[in-house]
Specification:
alpha/beta, two-stranded parallel sheet, 15 helices
Length: 474
Amino acid sequence: MAQLAPLKLEVPGEREFVEADRAKEFVALWTEQLTTHRQQVSDILGNDDNALADVVLCDSIRLSDKSFSDEAAEIVAAFLREPFMGGRSIASGILFAELDDMIAGRMTEMGLAVLQTICDAFVDAELVDVNLSDNAIGQQGIGACKTVLSMPSLERLSLCNNGLSEATMAEVADILTSDESGTGCTASKLTKIHFYNNMSGEGGCKEFARILEKSCNLTDIRFSSTRAGKAGSDIVASALDVALEEGRNANLEKLDLCDNNFGNKASQDALFRALGCTTCLTYLDLRDCDLEDDGVKKVCHALFESDSALEHLDLSGNGIERRGAKQIADYIRDSGGKLKVLCLDDNELTSKGVEKIAAAFHGSEDGHSIETLQLNCVLCGAIGARALIDAFGPDGKDLPNLKKICLDGNSFKEDIVGELEVAFDDRLAEMEENDSDGDADDDLSDDESDEEDEDEENGEVDALTDAMNKSLVV
C-alpha cells in the first residue's frame, strides 16, 4: 500500500517580527496543509478513523528567522500542543525541530519567555534533531530550553552563536549528562553536537569535556570559536584523546575544532593520538589552531595512520611554512587520491611550499579526486603558479575533478595571471586582492634545503611514535 511521508511545517516569508495576527496566518496555513494531507492519508487507509487517529501528519517544523512576540509564540505553541482534528497533537509526532533565530531583537526576559513557550510545546514529542542556534540564550536562558534538551530521544543538537558563558555551559552539561530516567543520559545517545561562536572560555571547555566523557556514538563534533585559549584547547584535545582511545565515538565522521589553540606540545600530542583513532573521518577543520609546522606534521601523520577516507581538510591560518607544506604533500600523495577539498589559506607556504603540494597532485594515473583547492594569501608567486598549472595538466587531465581553485591575496604579475586564467578558465576564483606590482618569489630564500628538511623529519619519527603511545589525562 502506498504511503505518504509526513509534512514539514515552515513559517513563510522573509525575516520579520511576528505579532499575534501574523501567527494566526501561520496557523491557518498549516491547518489547510495538514487537513489536505490528512484527507489524502485517509483515502489511502480506506477512511479508517481508528487508524487515522494514530497517523503522524507532520514530523518536522521550521520556525527559524522569525522573532515572535509573547502572544504570537503562545498561539503557535497552542496549535502544536492541541489534538488535531480528533487525533494526536502535531507536536507529538515531530522529530526534527529548527528553532534557531526566533528571538532576535527581543529584550532578554521577553525573548527567553518566548523560547520557553515554544520549547515547552514539545513536551510530548520525541525530538531527534534540535537546532537552537542564533538565539541569545546568554547566561540566563538555558533553563528555557530544558524541555527539548533533556529529551531521551535527542540525537542531534546545535547550540551555535548563543552567547553561552562558562556558567551556561555548565547547565548544558548538567542537563545532557543527567540520567534521571535511568535509561542513559542524553549525551550518551547523541550522534551530533555543535557548539560554535560562544564565549564559554576555558571553563566551557571543561564542561564540554564532561559531555564527551559520557558520549558514545558521536559522528559529528563541532567545538569552535569558543574563546578556549591554550589551556582550554588542551582540555578539549585530551578529552577527545581519551574518548577515542577508549573506543567511544569510533564512527566519528566530521570534526570541526576551528579557532582553538593547539600550540602546546601536550595538546598536539593528544590531537595526534585522537586523530590516529578516527578510521571513519571524512571532514576535518583545524583552521586557525596555531599548529605550525610541527603540529601539522603530527596531524598528517595521524591521518595517514588512521587510514580514514578524508574528503575535506582545512589547515588554514596555522602558520605553515615550507616544511609543513611537505608534510601536507606527503599526506596527499599517500592518501590515495581521496581528498576532495583542501584549504590552506593564510599560511606562509611560499611558492616552494605550493610547488611541493602541486607535485603531490601531479602524475596520478587515474586523476586526483580534488574538487576545491584554496591557496589564498600563501605568499605564492610565479613558481608556485606554474607548478599548479603543470599539476593540472593539459585540459585538466591530471585533475579532472577540479571545480574551483582560489589564489587570491598572492603576488602574481599580469602575465602569470593570464597564464592562470587560460589554464583554469572559470575554475579560477576572482583575484581582487592580487598584488600585480611584484612577484612573491623575489623574496624567496634558499637557506633551507630539501636535504635539511629530510634530516629534520627523520629525527622526529621516534618522537611521533612516542606521542602516539602515550596518554594524556584530563
